[in-house]
Structure to design on (223 residues):
């Protein structure tokens, strides 16, 4: 398997623009997570899905953030409108089962909002 | 939610030295994992270790869940070990990993 695949690797945009980050989990994994990494807050969980259903989105910072998982092989994280404070590295991760398997990360998307 | 504390926050070693990284949890932990973030930012899963001891080459990890801590041992460190080491785990009824702030390791040649 190619691992968790994220795109784009880098995104530079201007404040107010819509940003869409994409993720393809490892085939067969039924849990998908979106994390955000900043110097100030470290790695924080934004939202996670189980079998394509959002389970906990309490980490999503505000209504400008939304995430979807239309099928088992694709998820998006959208920010609309983007703000400079959204600049961070966004990671997608997947695992099989909730309690007994490793968490695997994608390479991340480095987002810069100017 | 669970609180995760890692120590030390920073570590500088000479190549060949050994080190121990510690992770403390505020509650009895499950689903404990160790990760290495390399200088290119990639997060690699090193161990899934909810309890007991595991070894993988020069790395080994021990978790004592009832005492709420885990240790990562690095022996004969190499420059490629540089990066940030994170532990993560869930507690109570949740297996969703919460991450510590990491230990930044620099290994000099």
């Amino acid at each position: 398997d190619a691992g968790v695949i994220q795109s784009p690797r880098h995104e530079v945009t201007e404040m107010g623009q819509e940003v869409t980050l994409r993720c393809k989990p490892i085939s067969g994994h039924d849990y998908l997570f979106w994390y955000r990494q900043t110097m100030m807050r470290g790695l924080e969980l934004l939202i996670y899905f189980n079998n394509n259903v959002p389970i906990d989105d309490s980490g999503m910072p505000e209504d400008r953030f939304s995430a979807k998982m239309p099928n088992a092989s694709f998820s998006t994280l959208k920010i609309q409108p983007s703000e400079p404070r959204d600049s961070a590295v966004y990671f997608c991760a997947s695992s099989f089962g909730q309690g007994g398997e490793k968490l695997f990360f994608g390479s991340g998307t480095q987002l810069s909002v100017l | 939610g669970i609180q995760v504390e890692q120590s030390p926050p920073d570590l500088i070693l000479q190549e060949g030295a050994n080190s121990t990284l510690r992770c403390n949890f505020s509650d009895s932990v499950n689903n404990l994992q160790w990760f290495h973030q390399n200088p290119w930012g990639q997060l690699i899963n090193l161990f899934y270790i909810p309890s007991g001891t595991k070894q993988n080459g020069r790395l080994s990890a021990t978790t004592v869940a009832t005492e709420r801590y885990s240790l990562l041992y690095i022996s004969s460190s190499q420059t490629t070990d540089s990066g940030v080491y994170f532990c993560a785990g869930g507690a109570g009824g949740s297996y969703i990993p919460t991450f510590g702030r990491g230990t930044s390791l620099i290994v000099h040649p």
Observations:
- Chain B has a mean pLDDT of 93.
- Chain B touches chain A at residues 30-31, 33, 35, 41-45, 48, 86, 88, 95-102 (CB under 8 Å).
- Chain B has no helices and eleven strands.
- The CA atoms of residues 88 and 99 of chain B lie 4 Å apart.
